[in-house]
Give the backbone structure.
Amino acid sequence: MLGHVTLFYGPDPKTVSLPAYLEELVEPVGLSDKDLQVLRSGLATLSDSRFCLSGPPPGTAIPVVLHSGPAEPLVQALQNEDVAASLDLALSALPSTHWTIEAMLGATFKPSQNRQPVGPTLLLAIAEDHTTDNYYAD
């Protein structure tokens, strides 16, 4: 698990599962069963992420738990053009008060971006990778 943050907790809040909500949003678009399974596999990385709705309908989406697991399953799912287009259509149909849902989805990619070596650390990683043994093997 790359990150797990409890952003808000109330005394028994009525929360909504982020992956279940996103899957429900995409359902009317009409993905094939195979593509829907690809989407489910990608969204599984968000399995513990939850939000609640506050205020009059449509409500304001408030993150409750943000679990940013590995981004790779979601990246692989979004390489499928039908899945990516369906999710994009579903997200663009959300009311403006649900902007945090897109932010929660985007947070999945943040840890992998933060952990890339730069500067001297990057140069050391490259130097270690190109030892005499494997440098000439390439």
Remarks:
- The CA atoms of residues 68 and 106 lie 9 Å apart.
- Residues 1-12 have pLDDT under 50 and may be disordered.
